[in-house]
Amino acid sequence: MRLEPHGAGGRTVPWRLLLGGGDPDALAAAGPWNMAVDDALLASAAAGGPPTLRFYRWNPACVSVGRNQPIRGLIAPGETERRGWQLVRRPTGGLAVLHAREITYSVVAGMDVLGRPRAAYLAISAALAEGLRDLGVDANVASPAAHAPLGRGPGYLSTGEPSCFADAAPGEVTASGRKILGSAQRRAGGTLLQHGSLLLAGSQDPVGGLLGSGGAGAAPPPAAGRGSATTVRAELDRLPADARIVEALAGAFARRIARALSPGGLSAGELALAEERAVTYSSEAWTWRR
Description:
By secondary structure, the protein is α/β, with parallel strands linked by helices. The protein has helices spanning 31-46, 79-82, 111-114, 117-135, 205-210, 232-236, 242-258, 268-281, 284-287; strands at 16-19, 28-29, 52-58, 62-65, 86-89, 97-99, 102-110, 139-141, 173-175, 178-188, 191-199, 262-263.
């Protein structure tokens, strides 16, 4: 049965729910492949493909850095491998994230479906916060000022805060006053990609040390009262199964934005494009471009 949720302006648009990166039996994939799939979904939606909500994890653990975040001279060559991590540069802006004990979401749709970038950012954050509340997490969206920049968007750059989770920006999702989910956007014409990381457990503190390993100066400690993130486990004293977390987040997204979600996989064209884009995301020329 074809589900018919409604887009902005009353337009009916079918939404796809995609788990993982094309392998129906695996939620996790390597960093370059994860980024290649998100990039391929953006291109597909821009060409008329379906709007998509995707959830995935990373194996092995991986540090992703923002599209324009400088890392040359800040990360020692081979340091991520020494720690057992991959290193990848995202197609979106923002700052470094350690993808180890977390779940990543991505949303790809036209602005005629989601609205303009600012409205889309707030709507997606509100839906994800509602999903976390369904799990028992007291999650909220950090209040945005009327003209404040939302999240760590495409043009955001800060050498003083090298980690995405060093602070909660307006429009991001918090719990107990601390950031629990960070997001970034990219726009391609009239189409948006927004993806972000929900912290399940562990710490993002190792990211600061990584970005000081190249000899250009260690990352400064976060400002008092601003630097600590929180996790689902810390908020609940337990960690629900991945399937339960995805169910809660997808359910809230359907209620607030998509109305309904139809599970699906990558089309043959999307898979081929992701394979092509994976070459770029695996390359040192892209990763070390700045």
